[in-house]
């Protein structure tokens, strides 16, 4: 049984989806040269793209199926059933982050180094302490 390449994908997970689709439609597809990409995704494009291989006797059928998918023939018509939250949750999260600590909120935007879990918890506890002190001060003055 001779295997032929019918498609290449830049992303190994996209190739896995195509592989599963082809197998679900009775095509004996295999994934070639993708082991390195699952271990270290950064090496995928350097060492080669993920390839979908099928027996030569099923190549035409497999290419036709993938062409149908690319054309949108198998797309869902009803959309997704995920409800979108009202408003702008990203802006609300940014506002909360700015209140808690400016560096914590803006750190990701400035592409700074990642903080460790303990450092993040420490910053959160400090921010909570500041909020409690201000709240007790406000209550004492009224």
Order of helices and strands: EHEHHEHHHH
How many distinct helices?
Answer: 7
Number of domains: 2
Number of strands: 3
- The end-to-end span amounts to 85 Å
The share of residues in helices is: 40-55%
**DSSP strand (E) fraction?**
5-15%
Mean pLDDT: 76
Architecture per CATH nomenclature, i.e. the level-2 architecture of the largest domain: 2-Layer Sandwich
| Biggest sheet: strand arrangement | 1-3-2
* Main sheet record: 3 strands, antiparallel
What is the fold named in CATH at topology level of the largest domain? Alpha-Beta Plaits
* Basic shape: elongated
Topology:
Blueprint (H helix, E strand, L loop, with lengths): L2 E7 L2 H13 L5 E3 L2 H5 L4 H4 L2 E6 L3 H13 L17 H12 L1 H6 L9 H25 L1
Antiparallel strand pairs: 1-3, 2-3
Quick structural summary:
The chain is mainly alpha-helical and 142 residues long.
Which tags fit this structure?
142 residues, mainly alpha, Alpha-Beta Plaits, 2 domains, three-stranded antiparallel sheet, 7 helices, 3 strands, elongated
Could you explain how this protein is built, in words?
- The protein is mainly alpha-helical and 142 residues long.
- It folds into two domains: 3-71, Alpha-Beta Plaits (2-Layer Sandwich); 89-141.
- It contains seven helices and three strands; from the N terminus they run E-H-E-H-H-E-H-H-H-H.
- It has helices at residues 12-24, 35-39, 44-47, 59-71, 89-100, 102-107, 117-141, and strands at 3-9, 30-32, 50-55.
- The chain has a three-stranded antiparallel sheet.
- Mean pLDDT is 76; it is low at 108-112.
């Amino acid at each position: 049984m001779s295997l032929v390449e019918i498609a290449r994908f830049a992303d190994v997970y996209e190739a896995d989806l195509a592989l599963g689709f082809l197998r679900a439609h009775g095509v004996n597809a295999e994934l070639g040269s993708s082991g390195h990409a699952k271990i270290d995704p950064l090496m995928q494009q350097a060492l080669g793209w993920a390839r979908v291989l099928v027996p030569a006797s099923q190549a035409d059928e497999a290419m036709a199926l993938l062409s149908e998918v690319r054309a949108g023939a198998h797309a869902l018509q009803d959309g997704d059933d995920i409800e979108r939250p009202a408003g702008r949750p990203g802006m609300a999260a940014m506002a909360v982050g700015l209140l808690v600590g400016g560096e914590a909120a803006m750190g990701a935007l400035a592409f700074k180094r990642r903080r460790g879990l303990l450092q993040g918890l420490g910053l959160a506890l400090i921010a909570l302490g500041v909020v409690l002190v201000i709240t007790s001060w406000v209550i004492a003055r009224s």
